[in-house]
Protein 1
Amino acid sequence: MSSYRSEQRRLTHRGREFHFVSYEGRPANERRGETALPPMWYLMSEGKRSPVMSQIAGQELAALDRALIAWLDEHVFEKPLDAAPGRRAG
C-alpha cells in the first residue's frame, strides 16, 4: 500500500478559477506498452484531468503557484500576461 498523499491547489488567474490535483506516479508496464510516470499535477476540468507538470516533493507553495500560473499562461491563455499588447514586462 502506498503512503502517497494527493494534494490540491485552487488558483484564480485572469478572473477564472482553476483546480489542480496531484496524483501518484505509476511504474512502467511493458505488457501494455506504458512508460513510467512520476507523481504529477493535473488540471481538473469538466470531470477530466489534463497533465500539467511533474510534482516536486517539498516545493514551496509560492513557487508551485508560479509554475502552475506559467503553465496556464502558456497552455490555456496561449501567452503570458506580460506579453499581451500594450503591457511591458517587468
Protein 2
Amino acid sequence: MKPVHRIGFCIGFWFAWLPAVMAQPGWAYPGDFSSEAIHIDFDELNDGQAVMNQYRLQGVVVTTPALQALDLQQHFAAAAPSEPNVLGSENEQRIGLRFQQPVQRLGMKVVGSFGPNDVLYLRTYDRHGNTVYDAVYIPPASDTVTLPSSALPYPNQAPAVFIGVQADKPVIWRAELEIPAGKPTLMDDLVFEPGPDNNSATVLDNALDNTPDDAEALLAALDEVLEQPSPAAAESLRRLVGNETIDTYVRERAALALASLGDAQAIATLSKLALDSRDANLRMAAHQAVWSLRQIFPLAGPPQVEIVPPSAPITDTNPFDVTVKLTWPLARKQVKLWLTGGKGLALLQNADSSYPARYSGPVEAGETVVLQGRYQARKVWTASPDGKEKFLPQPRTRFQIIVRIDEGPVDTSTLRFPVYVDFEQGSVSDVPPNTGQTAGESLLPTQGGQAQ
C-alpha cells in the first residue's frame, strides 16, 4: 500500500529508499540534490546542546515557531540516519527553518513511529510569507511500527522517512515541519540547495588584497558579509582579524562579526588575539567574541563521572573516603579537577590516600583520572527538635566536583557535578536524597559556563 499524499500547488512526499526520478517542481528525492548541496547532520555538536544559530553560516537558522532553540539528542535509528545526534523537541510539534538565502530544494529525515492515523506536514514559504508548497503525508497501514516501552521516549528501532520538496527556482525562504501530536519531533540529515552565496566573501577578499589601508572599504565589505554570511566569508573575516596591518577598529568589528555569524572555527584565532594583542580594545573585543561563541559552541567532551562510595555505611562522627573517577572521551591539553567541601561537610587533608583530591594537567582520550577526598561531618547551627538552637550535624549535605577544561586562558569551560551525602541513610550518591530518581540521573553539570 502506498502512502497518501495531498499536494498543495506541486509538491509530494516519498520514502527515502524509492528510486529518484527526473527533478520537477513538487517532491524531491535524495538523488535530486547535487554534490554542492548543504548537508547538516548535527553530529559535530554536543549531546543535549540547544541548537538555533549554529548553522547560520551554512545558510539556515533552526527554531521552534516561537523562535526558541531546539534540543540535540543522541539517537540511533534503524533506517540509519547519521549517528549519533538528531534534532528535536519534546514540547513542540513543529520545527521551523529560516534560510539566509532562498533555496530551491529542501529535504530531511524524520525519525519516529507513524501509523495510518498520523499526518506529517511540510510547509514552505517565500520571503513575503506566501505559501510556496504545502504538503501532507499519511503513512500507509503497513508502515505502523509497534515499539517496546523500554525503547521510549526515543526508540533505537524507530524508522526514518525522507521528506523533500523542490521548486522550479530558489524561492523558499522559510519552512515548517509539523509532526502529529503525541509523537516526538525528531529531524536528522537536513539538506538544501543552493547553499550560501559567496559574493560577500569575494568583495571582502578584494578589499583585503587591493585596498587594505582603506578602512571604509573594509567596513563596507564587512557589512556585506553580515548581510550575506557564508563559510567562505567567515574565512575571509578570520584572515582580516589576524592581519596586524589592518586598522584596529576594523579588526574589532571583524572579531564581533565572527561571533555574530557563529563561526566556531574562529575561536582559536580569537583566543590567540585576546592573549597577544597589544591593543586593549581589540583584546576586549576578542574576549567578548570567544565568550559569545562558547555560549553556542561549548567545549565538547565533558567527562563521564563515577562515584565510588565508601564500602561501609558512613556516620556523622567518623571520617570517610569518597573516590571519584572521571573518564575523558576526548583528549584535552589542560584540565583542572578538584573536590570541594559543603555545608556541614569538611574536606580533610588526606595524606594516607592513594589519590589526590586535586589534579591539574593534560588528559588523553579514554584516560581515567581518579580523585579521592576524606570527609568529616561538621556541626552547623540549626534548630533542635525541642525548639532550642544547638550545634547539630547536618543530616544531608553535598559536595561538588569542579571540572575546568582549559584550551587556553581565554577559551575555558567550568562544570560542577554534585555528590550527595546522606548521614541518615549512611550513603554517598549522585542522586539527591528522597527524590525517587534512579542512580545516574542527577550526575549532570549543575552550573557551567565559559570564563574569559
